[in-house]
Amino acid sequence: MRKMDKMRKKKEKKKGENGRKWRKSEKKDNDEIWKNIKENGRKSKKNI
Q1: 16 dihedral zone (left: phi>0; alpha: psi -120 to 50; beta)
Q2: What is the C-alpha separation between 45 and 41, in angstroms, rounded?
Q3: Model-level pTM?
């Protein structure tokens, strides 16, 4: 659980003030992106 929490904090910092809004509005898109990352490996992370 600690790793997940750290990842969440990093995401919020990157998005800044809009972090929470971004999460709600684009959560579906984000899930799709993460699926692609898992399928394609680390290379796809750099392109996003």
Answers
A1: left
A2: 8
A3: 0.26
Per-residue model confidence as pLDDT tens digits over 21-30? 555 555 667 7
Written as one letter, the residue type at 33 is: I
Q: With contact defined as beta carbons under 8 Å apart, do 48 and 33 qualify? A: yes
Please name the amino acid found at residue 12.
E
Q: What is the signed CA dihedral for 16, 45, 41, 32, rounded to 10 degrees?
A: 60
Say how far residue 43 (Cα) sits from the centre of its chain: 15
What lies within 8 Å, CB to CB, of 15 at 6+ separation is 22, 23
